[in-house]
Design a protein that fits this description.
142 residues; 1 helix; elongated; mainly alpha
C-alpha cells in the first residue's frame, strides 16, 4: 500500500488524488474484466445448451438408425430364407436339366466321333487312290 507524504493540512492532496484515480482505474478494469467474464460464461452456457441439444438429437438419430438396422436385418433374413427355399425348389429341376444337357452332349460327342472316323476312312481311301495313281505314273511309258 502506498504511503502519503504529509503537509500542513494533512496528506498531500495530489498524492491522494493520484492514488484514488489509480484505485478507480483498477476497480473499473476489474469490473470490465468481470463483465467480459460474465459474457463469456453466458456464451459458454449457450454453447453447452446447444451441444446438449445436439447430443439429444444424435441419441435419437442413433435409436432410429438401430431400429432401421434391425428392420433391414429382419427383412434380409426373411428374403434370404425365401431365396434358399426357392433355390431348393429349383435345384432338382436344374440338376435334371443339366443331366439332360449332359446326355445330349454325350450323344453329340458320339456322333462327332463317328463322323470323324467316317471322314478319316474316306480321306484314307482318297489318299490311297491318289497314291495308286502316283504309282501308276511310274509304269507309264514316257
Amino acid at each position: 500500500m502506498d504511503k502519503f507524504s504529509k503537509e500542513l493540512a494533512g496528506y498531500k492532496k495530489a498524492e491522494v488524488n493520484k492514488f484514488v484515480n489509480d484505485v478507480v482505474k483498477q476497480v473499473e478494469q476489474m469490473l470490465a474484466d468481470l463483465r467480459t467474464k460474465d459474457i463469456e460464461i453466458q456464451e459458454l452456457k449457450n454453447s453447452l445448451e446447444h451441444y446438449k441439444n445436439m447430443e439429444n438429437t444424435f441419441n435419437r438419430a442413433i435409436l432410429v438408425a438401430e431400429d432401421a438396422s434391425n428392420q433391414i436385418k429382419r427383412i434380409a433374413r426373411d428374403e434370404s430364407a425365401s431365396i434358399i427355399e426357392d433355390a431348393k425348389k429349383n435345384a432338382s429341376r436344374i440338376v435334371n436339366d443339366a443331366l439332360i444337357q449332359a446326355e445330349k452332349t454325350q450323344i453329340e460327342t458320339s456322333q462327332l466321333k463317328r463322323n470323324i472316323v467316317t471322314f478319316k476312312r474316306r480321306l484314307r481311301t482318297i489318299i490311297e487312290s491318289q497314291l495308286d495313281l502316283v504309282d501308276d505314273i511310274d509304269h507309264l511309258d514316257i
